[in-house]
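Quick entry, no commentary yet.
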Amino acid sequence: MVIHGSDMGGMSQFGFPGEKVYKWSTKDLTSDIIDIGLGGHMPTLDEWLAAAASKHKNMLINFEVKGPLDPVSWLSVFDPVYDYDNTCLAVILLLDKYKVSSRSMISSFNPEIYDSTIRVS
């Protein structure tokens, strides 16, 4: 999903206090339930890349991948809901699909994201 939320996946900025983005299905996140502004829906990364990759051929892209900041303390909350390796692999496969790897970088404030990105690359 293309979303900017709190570090722990909070959905309060969309009118759902106490809800976590990782507990919602893709179908629900992309539905009309969530208005991201001007009546728009939340795009998947695949949708965003499909629209942007060919239209903006010289654009450099920084993908900030979010995840729990301290996976050890939050293990009971995020496991098995959050999987760093699957998340990073999904991003890498989409970068390859749209042939934007050479002009993209994956960033994060979470070192586990970097470890997973290297592991699955």
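second:
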Amino acid sequence: MLAGGAVGYLRRMSHLRRHTTALAVVFALVAIALGACSEDTKLKVTGLEPTKGDFNGGQLVRIAGNGFMKEGTRSAKVYFGARQANVVRFDGDTGLIVQAPGGDVNQTVDVLIVFEPGGEIRLAKAFTFTEPGSGASVDDLDTSTVKKK
């Protein structure tokens, strides 16, 4: 009887071990899924487009980033060099549309974004003022991700 009891005990332990392993796998998958779904809500600026425009001003520029509205309403001021841009609107949580001021032909300037609340973020040498008609063109498009036939 003792041998039979030991066999039963070993079977139960083996069964328990399989369920524990399966449960561990389920927990690991849930943790991975939750990590993949988490959003980075930190305020940051990742770039702007286009990176050049008419020296007379008026070029619409989209500043890309993250967390622009996540923590509630923010205001923003944007400077191209020493000149303030006109903020047109926020484009959701990931964009800010501004109208660039004028500048000197062929001058490349820093772009400073001042968020309230949030602080200042500077993009060094991010925008170049150009002659009319020599701003963004088809040649400026990033085609590195376009499939070639």
